[in-house]
Amino acid sequence: MVVIAGERSGVGKTTVTLALLAYLCRQKLRVQSFKVGPDYIDPMFHQYVTGRSCRNLDPVLTSEAYIQECFTRHTQQVDVAVVEGVMGLYDGASATDFFASTAHVARLLNLPVLLVIDCSRLSGSVAAIAHGYRSLDPRLQVAGVVLNRVASDRHLQLLQEALEPLNLPILGVLRRQDDVYIRDRHLGLIPAAELSQLDSVIDRLATLGETCFDWEKLLPILKSQFSIAGVQTLRATSLHSPTRIAVARDRAFNFYYQDNLDILVELGAELVFWSPLSDAALPDDVQGLYFGGGFPEVFAQELAANHLVIAAVKQAIGVGMPTYAECGGLMYLCQQIVDFDAQAWQMVGIIPADAVMGARLTLGYRQAEALQDSPLLAKNAVVWGHEFHRSSLSVPSVPENSLFPLFQAQNYDRQSPLVTEGWRSPTLHASYIHLHFGSNLELPQRFLHYCRSSQFSQ
């Protein structure tokens, strides 16, 4: 079991992680992956390779105890666990105590760290980088380094000579691999479901994993066991009859934490997956709607063309079906999505605003306080969430009396001004802020209670 960390963003953590996962799965090992932080897209690639849902480990969105419990639960029946870090090893929500960084999570789980270093523009300086990262926090166990983007045999020799005095094993060497490439766009990698040639890329990554790592040294580390004292189960169960929730999941809506879906099921939900892109109607006999994030702006023309579904969603929400929509789901419920080409596409129209794409990236953790009751939160409840989007809301008309702003929110450091965010009605919770249910069971419990109590079903 190991944590894959980088000395900064963009050094190749995801390539290294996928190469490891692909080769280990080729060897018929049972592999469970994890991702530090709030990311949705990298876990999709993990799951595509391993066949197991990747789990997010984020102490801001959940808690330290939840991270330990989640990791313990999902490593009981596997041979190997691989945790992909976020940004640089010590980059987290706080620059002083490294809270929510990869280093923080590695300490919580008592796991060794494999440090990925981008060597494309350095040789002897690699020793200073490796030494600094290993010594900054003596509580961490840096098991070795992976040298990425090595240009030549001579380049590798210089790197090896520089690292030799540190007695820090080189556990992998990756040459410049221009043929192993996954395309990206405005919010990161293009999701796995949209890539037609992904199987061949994964096959090349498996071969890369086989040839570029020192398996004699690395495999014992990967198969080592971890131990955390006093881990307790944090989940709840339900005695209620199943509550049918329609969950939008397709190319436009696919940003969901698997733990959120699992928790809803454990609390008594029956999840019915459907597609606002291609289905002709809402699923039958559902009692609530869940629209996750994704890329509705990329598929806005297709979404707008599905008039039957748009009308059905608008009618269902209008007559009181409890609805949870976050980020991309919020955009879908607006009057229009205005894409990067300034083309406007008609959406559901429940929210009296347009979602307008722009160059500015909104990114970061948010502490949010509910201004009014919603299907997920009682008035004055405080939650932590995460934003990641390039759209903003423009309000071209006067809001209806039944629809009000949802949150007062501010950044992680709580030094920024409070802003109002999201929309709510007695049965609607719509926001840019992504929430994780792991340490907030009252959120899904409240939502399911609203769904069970509702007099409306589709």
Automatic annotation (TrEMBL):
Keyword Transcription: no
GO molecular function: ATP binding; cobyrinic acid a,c-diamide synthase activity
Keyword Protein transport: no
Domain CobB/CobQ-like glutamine amidotransferase: 244-439
InterPro entries given in the database record: CbiA/CobB_synth (IPR004484), Class_I_gatase-like (IPR029062), CobQ/CobB/MinD/ParA_Nub-bd_dom (IPR002586), GATase_3 (IPR011698), P-loop_NTPase (IPR027417)
Enzyme class: ligase
Pfam entry (one): GATase_3
Catalytic activity entry: cob(II)yrinate + 2 L-glutamine + 2 ATP + 2 H2O = cob(II)yrinate a,c diamide + 2 L-glutamate + 2 ADP + 2 phosphate + 2 H(+)
Site (Increases nucleophilicity of active site Cys): 434
Keywords: ATP-binding, Cobalamin biosynthesis, Glutamine amidotransferase, Ligase, Magnesium, Nucleotide-binding
UniProt pathway: Cofactor biosynthesis; adenosylcobalamin biosynthesis; cob(II)yrinate a,c-diamide from sirohydrochlorin (anaerobic route): step 10/10
Family assignment from sequence similarity: Belongs to the CobB/CbiA family.
Name listed for the protein in its UniProt record: Cobyrinate a,c-diamide synthase
Gene for this chain: cbiA
